[in-house]
Amino acid sequence: MSSKTPYYITTAISYPNGKPHIGHAYELIATDAMARFQRLDGKDVFFLTGTDEHGQKMQQTARNEGITPEALAERNSNEFRAMGKLLNASNDDFIRTTEPRHHEASQEIWRRMEANGDIYKDSYAGWYSVRDEAYYAEDETEVRADGVRYGPQGTPVEWVEEESYFFKLSAYEDKLLKLYEDQPDFIGPNERRNEVISFVKSGLKDLSVSRTTFDWGIKVPGDEKHVMYVWVDALTNYVTATGYLTDQNGPRAKYWPADAHIIGKDIIRFHAVYWPAFLMSAGIPLPKRVYAHGFLLNKGEKMSKSLGNVVDPVNLVSHFGLDQVRFFFLREVSFGQDGSYSEEGIGTRINADLANGIGNLASRSLSMIAKNLEGKMPEPGPLTDADKAILATADEAIAICREEMGRQQIHKAVGAIMNIVNESDRYFAAQEPWVLRKTDVARMATVLYVTAEVVRQIAILFQPIMPDSAAKLLDLVAVPEEKRSFVYLGEAGRLAPGTELPAPAPVFPRYIAPEADKA
Ligand code: ME8
């Protein structure tokens, strides 16, 4: 058995009613960076993603396409899986809610909520948004100029009236408010926390948790006319994958409760209100944190099929390169806020931070070692204050990164790494090793040693953000595979003098926009 501390992190599970878009890619990349960070930091990580395949939206889309919901789910779930491969996502499992293990777990959680006296039969009459798979109170909806009634997320709602089971959500109002107070970190960022608290304070009504007017879902135990409301089953996926509900002694039960659910801001209510209430009712421990990221906007505009600005992640990656796209999103967007992207913005970042930043620093220092020091890591001489200062900046960065990644402030962790790059650039320019080559070769060797050592640390820290490019950089400074985790940061893993380095090769090419290319 591993003595490492378990760490369980999840993305939302996506609706496979269409192909994945850039918002899905963004969430997966960010969560992957957090999972990789914790692994490199010595945790026993379980990282889950997957697809949310039931519900009215899936059934309607399938009907419109003239295929079965099973076929629609199968086709698009495969697209989501393929996107994960393309993005180099390191998820340990991919869950589909149509799998038998998930039907079993969902029925089990239902039975426990029922046994706790929280489920009763009545009839529902109210507004429902199929696109959001959400019930809305009348005062949350409005009729717009087009005569259509819309919900708070701008999607059309329809009137639903049917026999339904209800969950006694109203009984959890005080318990939820106490949870938010006792565990201030349960919801992040703060804007979302405040939003959730005021929603709960405004009063909770019991929640309709089953449907009878369609059958694409998980059957309610003991009443097969009903299928569970899709969000009851969807949220349960996080527990399903650990086996916690059905096999307490299984190898993954140790991962529950989850350390972090990473989701978009549009689904905070489900994760921070309904989900903890279901879990409390079923007597299951609560996740430690729910963190909602913002929305990606294309040049400041919401992506939509009608605006024709929906970006396919496959195209973006083939145009800019995977690690370039990963870096851009994680550096440019404050995680938790909305973020805007454009081709120009991505190109500018690639050139400023990657090509002219870390790429240039590595290639200038390593090519001087290749040319002047027979391609071997030199023996450093006595260290000056400037040498010590830049090494200290590199050695101290992990503490900052750990703190920021622990709060899902990915952009700040990336900023701390970029700060080492920028300071190293200034150090290198000030030391002028190309002048020392003619005046003081021993001192030149020390400057090159220090720079290469800092490049090593930058590369180790960049692994969660740009796994392939960081590995190439680590190859260039001859760091063996087994010495790439965070315990080797700082003194513990200093480059060994005398180590033979491979021939330097560029890792971050400049981005040249297609138009400029032609000119
Ligand atoms: O909501 N920018 O699925 P989904 C950033 N099945 N993130 C975005 C985005 C954008 N433009 N558009 C969507 C669902 N997302 C449910 C979840 S979890 C038990 C069930 C995010 O396919 C969105 O916020 O509509 C969500 O976190 C994820 O993508 C999947 O969205």
From TrEMBL:
Major enzyme class: ligase
InterPro entries from the UniProt entry: aa-tRNA-synth_I_CS, Anticodon_Met, Met-tRNA_synth, Met-tRNA_synth_2, Methionyl/Leucyl_tRNA_Synth, MetRS_core, Rossmann-like_a/b/a_fold, tRNAsynth_Ia_anticodon-bd
Localization per record: Cytoplasm
Catalyzed reaction equations: tRNA(Met) + L-methionine + ATP = L-methionyl-tRNA(Met) + AMP + diphosphate
Superkingdom as given in the UniProt entry: Bacteria
One Pfam family recorded for the sequence: Anticodon_3
Listed GO MF terms: methionine-tRNA ligase activity
Motif ('HIGH' region): 14-24
Sequence ranges assigned to domain Methionyl/Leucyl tRNA synthetase in this UniProt record: 7-365
E.C. numbers: 6.1.1.10
Annotated ranges, domain Methionyl-tRNA synthetase anticodon-binding: 377-509
Chain span(s) of sequence motif 'KMSKS' region: 302-306
Keywords: Aminoacyl-tRNA synthetase, ATP-binding, Cytoplasm, Ligase, Nucleotide-binding, Protein biosynthesis
Family note: Belongs to the class-I aminoacyl-tRNA synthetase family. MetG type 2B subfamily.
Function description: Is required not only for elongation of protein synthesis but also for the initiation of all mRNA translation through initiator tRNA(fMet) aminoacylation.
Summary of subunit composition and partner proteins: Monomer.
Record protein name field: Methionine--tRNA ligase
Organism: Rhizobium oryzicola
UniProt lineage: Bacteria, Pseudomonadati, Pseudomonadota, Alphaproteobacteria, Hyphomicrobiales
